[in-house]
Amino acid sequence: MKRKELLEIDSVDKAIVSWDVKEAFVKVAKTTDIPIGAMKHVEVEGTEILIANVKGKFYAVCDRCPHLNAMLSMGTLVDSIVTCPRHFSSFDVTTGKLSSGPNNLYLPVYTLKVEGSDLLVGI
Hints:
Blueprint: E1 2-9, E2 15-21, E3 25-30, E4 39-44, E5 47-54, E6 57-62, E7 76-78, E8 81-83, E9 90-92, E10 98-100, E11 109-110, E12 112-115, E13 118-122
Antiparallel strand pairs: 1-2, 3-13, 4-5, 5-6, 6-11, 7-8, 8-9, 9-10, 12-13
């Protein structure tokens, strides 16, 4: 949950604002659900998220390609690079950065933590 607090009003035109951001974590899967080199599609509060297991470390990014809205989890994952099944743009799941493709696009990245065998995504 994100909450904005108005700290003070400096003038009629200018307000000083502080963001109190509290990330809520939601359990989305078990570590055993996603083998090394695999991906899983999950939805958290209407947001489609791709969870990837890269060499035993888990990452969470938006599961929709920003170019043509294809579901990236239906594509391929090689090392840390996911390739879109529709037009073959590729993104690094560890950073969300475009690896190759037609535009200067990126994927939103979500905080992911492991507690025991549970995977939790921050929203």
